[in-house]
Structures are given as C-alpha cells and as structure tokens.
Amino acid sequence: MKILVDHGAYDNFGDLAMLQAAMDRLRQVEGAELHVQESPLVWRRSNVHTVGYHVPLPDPVLHRKLRARVKNRLLRRGLRLATSAWRNRLYNGVGRGNSIGAQLIQTGTSQSVIARWCADYDALFIAGGGDMNDVFPQALWRCCALIHAFADQNKPILLSGQQLGPMRHPASVRLLHSALRRVTFVSVREPTESVRILLEAGVDRARMAMTGDDSLGIAPAEASEVGRLLEALDVAPGNFIAVNIRMGPYTTVSPSHLREVAGLVGQVSRDLNLPLLAVPISVDEGDSDIASARLMEAQLGRRLRILDRASLSAALLKGVLGSAHAAIGMSYHFATFALCQGVPAIALYVGDYYEQKAKGLSAFWGDQRLALSIEDLAKNPAANACATFTDPSLRGHLRARASEATSAWEDCFAKRIVLPLRTLTSERPDRSVPSQASSTAADIL
Predict the structure, then answer these.
(1) CA distance 28 to 217
(2) Whose C-alpha in 54, 63, 78, 290 is 20 to 30 A from the C-alpha of 334?
C-alpha cells in the first residue's frame, strides 16, 4: 500500500516537528510505503520515499506571463483582479461540484492530470499545519485539490493537527468546505475557529476530533545536550526568558510593533531580573526569526542572546524552551513547545492569522492570559505578564494539561489514523476505511 504524505514543512522547526511526529507513527503501518513530499528532513528508512510535486494555482497561464511583463501599475492591478475573478470562479465550481476535474500537477519537469497522478496511491495523509486558509492560497489549493482527487477515487483521506482558517473570501470558504466534507477523518489543533469551520462545513462529528498540535508527539532533546547549549550562551536552565518575533510577507508586524515588543520583553526582563534569549522557530530566508531577533536587539539597545547555531533541530528547540523560566513570542510552536512542558508562554499576535493562533492556544491551554495583542502593548502590560509568569498555580495547571493532551493526541492518532491504515493494508484491494465507533460530542470537542 502506498500512502502519499503531504505537508507544509520547510525551514520551520514547528512544521518539521509536526511532520516528524506523524511519520514516527505512520511507520508503524506494516506493509505501507510512505511517499513524502520533499522537506529538509532526510528519511533513512527503506519504506519511506521522497516525492517532489507542485499543484499550481489555477491562474490562467496568459495572465501569469503578462503580469511578469507589464510594468504599468493600473494594468497590473487589472490583471490581478481578473486573475482573482478567474480563481474564484474555479473555486466556486469545485466547491459546488465536488470534483477537481482536469487540473494539473507538476513533478520535476513534467506535468500530469492530478487524478491520473493520484491513482498510483492508496491513501492520502496531510500532516498538521496552518496552511488551509486564505493566507497561503497555494497551500489551500494544493490540499483541496489532493483531497478531491483522492475522494473521486474513493480512497481514504486523513488529516491531523490542522488549523483551518482564517478564511477571507466566500469562494475560498466554499472550496474548503467542499473538501472537508469529503475527508475520512480530520483532527484540528484548537477548539475555536477550526472547530467552527468544521461544523459550518457540515462535517459529521464522528469524523472529527480536537487533539492539539501534532508536535505534542516529539520528545525534547536530552537535558545534557540542552544544558551544554545554554552554557555556551551564558544562560542557566530555568533562569532566562525566551523571546521570539516573526516578520515576513504573511505577517503584519510593523517597525512600531517591533518597538512595542522590544519594550515589553525588556521591561519583563528587568522586573524579573532574568536575561533574554531569542529562540527561533523559522529559519527560512523569507521569515527568519533570527533576522527578526537582530532587529529586536537594535530596538532593545542592549545585548540580546540569539540562538543562531547551525545545528538546530525541533527536539533541541523544544528542549531549550522547556528549560526557560517563561516565554513571550509570536510563533505558534515557540509557545506550544514551552506550554507543553509546563513553562508559561504568552503568545503575541497582530492580524487575523496570528490572532487565531494565539487565541486558539489560550483556549486549548485554558487560560486567557496566554494570548496578548501587540496592538495593546502601548498599555504597558509588563506587570500583567510578570504576574502571569509568577502565578504558582499556572505551572501545575500547564503540566497537568500537557500530560492529558499528549496522551489524548497519541490515542487519537493511533486509533483514528494508524489503525484504519493498518486495516486497509490487510484488506486490500478494498480501499475504503471502515468507519470508527462513534464518539459523543464531549469526547470529540
């Protein structure tokens, strides 16, 4: 049996943690070949293969070529609007018709009709991430196209640890809803907007679950390895504040926001008499947390220790964040890595994409203090942050919630993803996944 593993993990250690956790469990499916979309991870297993593919956005080829040549701003704007109208028309068509039709997929230098290419696989698994939204239209289209192609062939489609939304355009909502209705099973990582979108799409409760993030499934690095790294940075375990800021094409962080964040973390550092350590999650050139940390250092006006070693890994970063006294940052996985080890973390946000992440985190971990709008930093919330970090009951609550959440995630992944795939392997050529025993709404949500 051949399983296609799709994901959005590139040079982002949070995304790589989700993919790694999922792959560690999928390899338990005896007799399965895992064909994984290209990523920075190297799989040294005989049953794991890397496959490169790209599902291009449905923009007319003529428009793409013209946009590359037209310099006049008004003409370029007109072409963008025409392209958007074309794309929305296709989204609406797919959303109403529940079929992907003859859309193309590119593999290397060749291309094929996506349905024909997917015929070579027996099941689709989409690893956790925050890609199925209007912030990343390329990823939304790729995921929905693959879902429809596999559903048209009556093959199982399994999604784990998803953030669904934010959605900004009615055509995109229709496209996503139509795809979600066709999945075999989907788990989401937050109990707020993602659950609302599933219910709004009409997905049966027996085919959904709220499990938290897939990165719950990876262990942190050994304490000795983390200790050596922190010693080289001249900080002691448990005696530093981890910080993170994300700037990039999909964020709305402005220079004034950066000044406010620098002011907040600087004041918290002084109030608690603890040094700051910038911990990156994304090291991609387009949204590098290391580059953003250097900009924040300039705003601080004093030294900021930055974890910019070449040999970083998701496990090592998780270990570092588990050794912090507290954390303040924007990256979803920066906060998640800390919270799941009982370390209080405040998730900063600006814009609808990061607002959903931060508020989803605070809801999942059961404390509204864990989400803070950057727009509110002018109100000088440093005292509230310090009070949160020194609350003696919070750490115990987080540790208990983390233990419960990790066990629930493991149980759900084993029963709702690994077990059906094992069943499918033993029952080939029947490619349908047996329905699972129904759960109550309380069990699922």
Answers:
(1) 14
(2) 54
Own/partner long-range contacts of 306-312 (Cβ < 8 Å, ≥24 apart): 306/277, 306/278, 306/280, 307/229, 307/233, 307/277, 307/278, 307/279, 307/280, 308/280, 309/229, 312/13, 312/280, 312/283
Instruction: Identify which of 213, 216, 212, 209 has the alpha carbon closest to the alpha carbon of residue 442.
Output: 209
Tens digit of each residue's pLDDT (9 = 90 or more) over 117-168: 999 999 999 999 999 999 998 899 999 999 999 999 999 999 999 999 999 9
Distance in angstroms (rounded) separating the CA atoms of residues 142 and 123:
16
Terminal CA-CA length for the chain: 32
Give residue for tokens 């219910």. Answer: 199
Residue type, 244: N
* pLDDT digits 0-9 by tens, 201-252: 999 999 999 999 999 999 999 999 999 999 999 999 999 999 999 999 999 9
User: CA–CA separation, 364 vs 405, rounded Å?
Assistant: 9
Its pTM stands at 0.91
Residue 215 half-sphere exposure toward CB, CA atoms < 13 A = 28
Query: CB-based contacts of 206: which residues, under 8 Å, 6+ apart?
Result: 435, 436, 438, 439, 444
pLDDT at 91 over 90: no
- Print burial letters for 14-49: b (CB count within 10 Å at least 16), e (below 16): bbbbbbbbbbebbeebeebebbbbebebebeeeebe
Give the C-alpha separation, 357 to 189, whole Å.
10
| pLDDT (0 to 100) of residue 379 | 82
Q: What is the pLDDT of residue 437?
A: 35
Instruction: Kindly write down the DSSP assignment for every residue of 59-72, as one continuous string.
Output: --HHHHHHHHH---
